[in-house]
Structures are given as C-alpha cells and as structure tokens.
C-alpha cells in the first residue's frame, strides 16, 4: 500500500520548485549579458525622452477699447455794456434839431435818462431841448444791441415821459394840451409801446394830432 503524502510535504515540494525556477531565470539573464557580437557586449538601448518646445507667434490680447471723451466747449457769454455815452452823443448829432428856427446855440441835451445796453434788443436814451422848458420838444433815441436804429417817432413832441422799459420794449406816455389847459399842465394823454420786431422799431398804439401836430 502506497503512503499518501502529507500537506507539509506538498508545500515543501512547491517551495523547492519555485527556487529552481528563480535560479534558472537568473542564469539566463547572466548568459544574455555575457554574449558578444563582434567581440562587444550587447547593450540594452536606453530610452531617451526628448522634450520639444514649439514656440509660435505670440497673440496679443487687444486692449479694451475706451470710448473717447468728447469735450464740448460752451460759447462764452456775451459781454454787455451799459456805457452808451459815445453812441448817444453820435446819434444825437444825426437827427434834426429840436426847433426848425433854432439857431446854432439850440440843440439836444442828454441828462442821463437811458437804459442803454448792448445786449438789449431795444433800449433808449431821452433827449431834451437845450435851455428849453417843460413844453419844449423832446425825443427818444432807439438802439438795437447798442446800435442806433432811429428815433421813436419821426417828429419832435413835448411832454414825453418814459414810464417803463424792458430788454425788448419801451413804454412811453405823451401828454398834450386840451382846450383851456395851462401850458405847464396838459390833461391829454396817449400811451404807446415801442418794440423791436426783428428788423425795426414798431409802435403799438396811436398818437393824436395834438401830440404830432400833423408832422408825423
């Protein structure tokens, strides 16, 4: 009767076989290294790793566009002048004298009553007869933006009073004598308004014959 090998004997046998395979493998490796070709040992080629850097044209990121700043210069405000002395003197010399029969010594005089302004569409200057009385002729010089544009009315009238004005208009009251009125105290009255209508002076209202004496 053949005896059955024990478990310990089987494990021992497998261990011996593993050692034998390891020895054979090592011998084979040594033998390959020892083989020569043309008298030189065979070298196992090394693995060479190369790093290739590809440099391409740089791409610049465009700068963020900015909206240009537009600077608007405001037109300078016009310079207004209220000094009308030269303009008033020159204008007074251009109009007829106060009285048809006045001599060289009679003429117009300016006492300072004005709202002259080179920025006003309509301004005025009041003239009186030099050496005259309350019933002597008077006149209004009219200016547009400081430039003389003519008289308020085409004839000279007495008892003229400016009652109000603005940059575009002049309010005037003309008094006149009714029958029986003393020379210094006229009771008749006519109110008119002079305005600038873009090209000339226009009078709103009307003047009776007693004011104009039919001369204008």
TrEMBL record:
Region described as Disordered: 55-78
Source superkingdom: Bacteria
Membrane among keywords: yes
Short name of one Pfam family: Lipoprotein_21
Keyword Membrane in annotation: yes
Biased composition (Low complexity): 61-78
Keywords assigned by UniProt, alphabetized: Cell membrane, Lipoprotein, Membrane, Palmitate, Signal
Listed name of the protein: LppP/LprE family lipoprotein
Source organism per UniProt: Gordonia rhizosphera NBRC 16068
